Amino acid sequence: MSSSKQKQKQPKTVLEKIVFAVRNQPQTPNGVSRSAIVKYLKAELNYDNATALKQGLKKGVSSGKLEQKGQSFRVKGDPVVAPPQEEQIQITEVKEGNKKGGTD
């Protein structure tokens, strides 16, 4: 009964758990939000010590292991995801012509 998740080395420190959570989330240009990290750790690792997570995030940023942009975090050295390009919308002008028919 060994699955690929059980074969992976389980993170031991809070910072390792945070890095594990960030790398296993879908990446966005800004990184992974603090709330997404908390939700992932609670669901996957059954870990929800809010104080330790806050300190771990702070330590990760100060040590240079994590990059912070607002309330989102990214592992330093991981590839940056390019922001999605906005879809160009074609705008056509509609000219108002003479109206046929009238009012009585």
From TrEMBL:
Family annotation (PROSITE patterns): H15
GO biological process terms, alphabetically, are:
nucleosome assembly
Q: Where is this region: Disordered?
A: 63-104
Naming one, the record's GO cellular component terms include: nucleosome
Query: Superkingdom of the source?
Result: Eukaryota
Query: What SMART domains does the record point to?
Result: H15
Residue ranges annotated for the H15 domain, each copy included: 10-77
InterPro entries in the record, alphabetically?
Histone_H1/H5_H15 (IPR005818), WH-like_DNA-bd_sf (IPR036388), WH_DNA-bd_sf (IPR036390)
Q: Which GO terms describe its molecular function?
A: DNA binding
Renumbered to this chain, the Basic and acidic residues biased-composition regions fall at 93-104
What protein is this chain from?
Answer: H15 domain-containing protein
Per the UniProt entry, what species is this protein from, by scientific name? Cyclophora tenuis (Marine diatom)
